[in-house]
Specification:
Layout: H1 30-39, H2 45-56, H3 70-80, E1 86-93, E2 98-104, E3 110-118, E4 121-125, E5 129-131, H4 140-144, E6 146-149, H5 152-167, E7 180-183, H6 193-204, E8 218-222, H7 226-233, E9 240-244, H8 250-256, H9 265-279, E10 283-289, H10 297-307, E11 312-318, H11 332-344, E12 348-351, H12 365-374
Helix pairs in contact: 1-2, 5-6, 7-9, 10-11
């Protein structure tokens, strides 16, 4: 059994002093940006102009900010809009509807994000940490370990960059405007609590303070950090909570999701129902289908009993195996029987669309392959 990892709820992992990324306007609310601009000797309204370019027009190039005086344009942009993400690799599949980006941060850390275009919406999946400390054995990111938490701006900048990709018309057959954000990339979002909540507020604040997304179109995932789940329920947000459950029984979940050694299934689900009760939002229960591990009919029946009558929806995820892993996806007939049993129990259930397999689509795969290449493996 995997040993229980350290679970930091503080801004950064204990014992580490990572170099902070440059301060960016997305780290601050509008009032904070105005104060910073004033410190630079410029009128406060310049903060609104910069914010309109970044969040409203998705513009990063100072040369295109022609409403700013040429003499101060570079200085202001350099002070409030430093480069946070440097593209390392960008891959596309599904006729361009799925695009995965690997970024290098200022300290060399690698993170990933994914853009997914559909006929009625554009969704981005973003990372909240470089690596992850939750140690789930079937997850590439979990096996890599935690490097550090991302800053608020590093989180937001992934969404803004990919919103610009969508706005460029690069995703044919989809709307040109980003509409949904899911915190399901690298990392455990609720282990970087304050920065993730600030990022949500920035993404959902009306332009020019933020990107202007609906809170109902934002999903925050967790493996089940109960104190943070209960804290999130009191934030006054309307985001969807996605609980990565992966097993309905403690014996198996202790192995698949090591945090279960601290907070058991019953306690995690109780926190989820508290979130649903206080927000009125249906909880999304994420369940990776792993061949001969968690896909038995009796586990489907147990999951159905746990969720029946609750404000919950099950999202079954066909496992995207990582290279060299002993874990594999459940066969389709097994998956269909699992769905049938859950629906028979009255539990709303869907199977997640599988995308990006040919571009290392599973969380952490692209970063792992890049690290391996750099190490000569």
């Amino acid at each position: 059994m995997t040993s229980l990892p350290v679970l930091p709820l503080s801004p950064d992992p204990p014992g580490r002093r990572p170099a902070l990324p440059p301060r960016h306007l997305a780290d601050l609310d509008l009032a904070g940006r105005q104060a910073l601009v004033a410190e630079l000797g410029e009128p406060a309204f310049r903060a609104r102009q910069l914010s309109t370019h970044y969040f409203g027009r998705l513009v990063r190039d100072p040369a295109r900010m022609t409403d700013l005086p040429a003499a101060t344009r570079e200085r202001l942009a350099g002070s409030l809009m430093p480069r946070l993400l440097t593209p390392v690799r960008e891959l596309a599949c599904d006729d361009g509807a799925t695009r995965k980006a690997l970024w290098r941060l200022h300290d060399g850390s690698l993170v990933e994000s994914v853009l997914m275009g559909y006929p009625d919406r554009v969704t981005v999946c973003i990372s909240s940490q470089a690596g992850c400390g939750m140690a789930c054995p079937f997850c590439a990111t979990g096996q890599a370990g935690l490097t550090r938490n991302l800053s608020t701006a590093e989180i937001v900048d992934q969404a803004v960059y990919l919103a610009g990709v969508a706005a460029s018309g690069a995703v044919s057959g989809s709307p040109p405007r980003l509409s949904h954000v899911v915190f399901m990339g690298m990392g455990e979002p609720l282990a970087n609590y304050s920065r993730v909540v600030d990022a949500v507020r920035r993404l959902c604040a009306p332009a020019p303070e933020g990107l202007g997304l609906s809170q109902r179109h934002v999903t925050v995932s967790t493996v089940g950090l109960v104190p943070a789940m209960r804290r999130l329920a009191g934030e006054g947000l309307s985001v969807t909570l996605a609980l990565s459950l992966h097993a309905p029984d403690d014996e198996l979940r202790d192995e698949l999701v090591p945090v279960n050694q601290r907070w058991k299934v019953a306690e995690v689900l109780d926190a989820a129902w508290d979130y649903a009760s206080r927000t009125g939002r249906r909880v999304s229960v994420e369940y990776a289908m792993i061949r001969d591990v968690n896909d038995q009919p009796w586990r489907a029946d147990l999951l159905g009993r746990l969720l029946a009558g609750r404000l919950a929806h099950v999202n079954l995820i066909p496992l995207n195996p990582t290279p060299g892993s002993r874990w594999d996806a459940s066969p389709k007939p097994v998956e269909r029987e699992f769905v049938r049993r859950l629906r028979e129990a009255g539990v709303s259930t869907t199977v997640r669309d599988t995308r990006g397999r040919e571009i290392d689509g599973a969380c952490g795969q692209l970063a792992a392959s890049e690290t391996g290449s750099a190490d000569g493996r």
